[in-house]
Write the structure tokens for this entry.
Amino acid sequence: MKFFLDTANIDEIKQGVSWGLVDGVTTNPSLVVKEGVDFHSRVKEICAVVNGSVSAEVTAVDFDGMMKEGHVLAKLHHNVTVKVPLIPEGIKACKALSSEGIKVNVTLCFSASQALIAAKAGATYISPFVGRLDDVSQDGIQLIRDIVHIYKNYGFSTQVLAASLRHPMHVVQSAMAGAHVGTMPIGVMKQLFNHPLTDIGLKRFLDDWEKAKSQAPKK
């Protein structure tokens, strides 16, 4: 399973990359606005740090507008994946862009039927939103399972990118369900390290080491 960071913060991305865990980044205009920087400039910065897919989202909701923005974004860097919303115009743009060899991430997916049409349109990634489905009392992880099953049935090459992952169990469950990618905030990625027994065990080892040094014969 690939790990993507869902952020536009360069320091967070550099930290994740230093751990050797970041395979890509997902961004959107909202995340970039929080950083107070130019969208295109920040996408280029991210591409310079991450050796992997960097999803950059269009803001247009019409086909012509999405195509125009998509072409601009794709030219920023060869790692850019153009992100489009799962609406009829977005699926139309996905088909057109992917036919040109441009990678496309279809976002805001909340059903298996939506995922099916995105795959038929040639999407590189489909982004089902696990946490947002949980928020409305639907099973987000079951959606991941359903999409993975359907894609395997027909040999679709579209990768399932589990999004809106709120905690470590979302990540683990998405991996168990067969998601190809999980995108998460830096806070969730940090939580993947945590277990109280690791902390207890490390403290015990270090305490024992200090005792062993104090008991060693002095030269």
